[in-house]
């Protein structure tokens, strides 16, 4: 049975190549590497501008001069 290596397009033969349908072990490993790198890209976290704005808005600024008995009251 003849086929073509999906990596380098070289003609391969199931009766000759142990790594069929790849022409060599190197091409077989490269194919696995392609899958691994795709997986990595998909799982990479994505930060939107909205996320950044929300993070800045939640920054807490401590007012050391505020009344210690009511630390949440900023009107005083
Ligand atoms: Zn190949």
What oligomeric arrangement do these chains adopt? single chain
Q: Could you estimate the helical fraction of the residues in percent?
A: 25-40%
Q: Can you list the strand order of the major beta sheet?
A: 1-2
Morphology = rod-shaped
The molecules bound to the chains, other than polymers, are:
zinc ion
Mean pLDDT: 77
Number of helices: 2
Structural class: mainly alpha
For the record, give the distance between the C-alpha atoms at the N and C termini, rounded to a whole number.
85 Å
Percentage of residues in strands: 5-15%
- Total number of β-strand segments? 2
Largest sheet: 2 strands, antiparallel
Encode the helix/strand succession as letters.
Answer: EEHH
User: Whole-number radius of gyration?
Assistant: 30 Å
Describe this structure in words.
- The protein has 76 residues and is mainly alpha-helical.
- The chain has a domain at 2-36.
- Helix content is 36%, strand content 8%.
- It has two helices and two strands, in the order E-E-H-H.
- Strands 1-2 form a two-stranded antiparallel ribbon.
- A hairpin with a 6-residue loop joins strand 1 and strand 2 (11-13).
- The longest helix has 18 residues, at 25-42.
